[in-house]
Amino acid sequence: MVTVKELCAPVSDYKVNLGVIQLSREEKRRRRRATAKYRSAHATRERIRVEAFNLAFAELRKLLPTLPPDKKLSKIEILRLAICYISYLNHVLDV
């Protein structure tokens, strides 16, 4: 079993070979550059993913009480405020 200490070993403990990597002809043939079509499709998928992510944060933001209500919050602030608000609501239910 791996311990946390083993996973968090200092960088100096790792032996890294910085030599040149030799690829066979077949490996070179398999490693093709991404085509413009592929890059474009990937960029489109990433844009859609980021838009969905930002939309989810906007929806979460609408559910959180702040003063003023239209105050701009960063994503980390939204998450922290959500954690605090959920804790508060749990406390209210327990009382």
UniProtKB/TrEMBL annotation:
<dbReference type="InterPro" id="IPR011598">
    <property type="entry name" value="bHLH_dom"/>
</dbReference>
<dbReference type="Pfam" id="PF00010">
    <property type="entry name" value="HLH"/>
</dbReference>
<keyword id="KW-0539">Nucleus</keyword>
<dbReference type="GO" id="GO:0046983">
    <property type="term" value="F:protein dimerization activity"/>
</dbReference>
<dbReference type="GO" id="GO:0000978">
    <property type="term" value="F:RNA polymerase II cis-regulatory region sequence-specific DNA binding"/>
</dbReference>
<keyword id="KW-0805">Transcription regulation</keyword>
<dbReference type="GO" id="GO:0000981">
    <property type="term" value="F:DNA-binding transcription factor activity, RNA polymerase II-specific"/>
</dbReference>
<feature type="domain" description="BHLH">
    <location>
        <begin position="37"/>
        <end position="89"/>
    </location>
</feature>
<dbReference type="GO" id="GO:0007417">
    <property type="term" value="P:central nervous system development"/>
</dbReference>
<dbReference type="InterPro" id="IPR036638">
    <property type="entry name" value="HLH_DNA-bd_sf"/>
</dbReference>
<dbReference type="GO" id="GO:0030154">
    <property type="term" value="P:cell differentiation"/>
</dbReference>
<protein>
    <submittedName>
        <fullName>Helix-loop-helix protein 2</fullName>
    </submittedName>
</protein>
<dbReference type="GO" id="GO:0045944">
    <property type="term" value="P:positive regulation of transcription by RNA polymerase II"/>
</dbReference>
<keyword id="KW-0804">Transcription</keyword>
<keyword id="KW-0221">Differentiation</keyword>
<keyword id="KW-0217">Developmental protein</keyword>
<keyword id="KW-0238">DNA-binding</keyword>
<dbReference type="InterPro" id="IPR040238">
    <property type="entry name" value="TAL-like"/>
</dbReference>
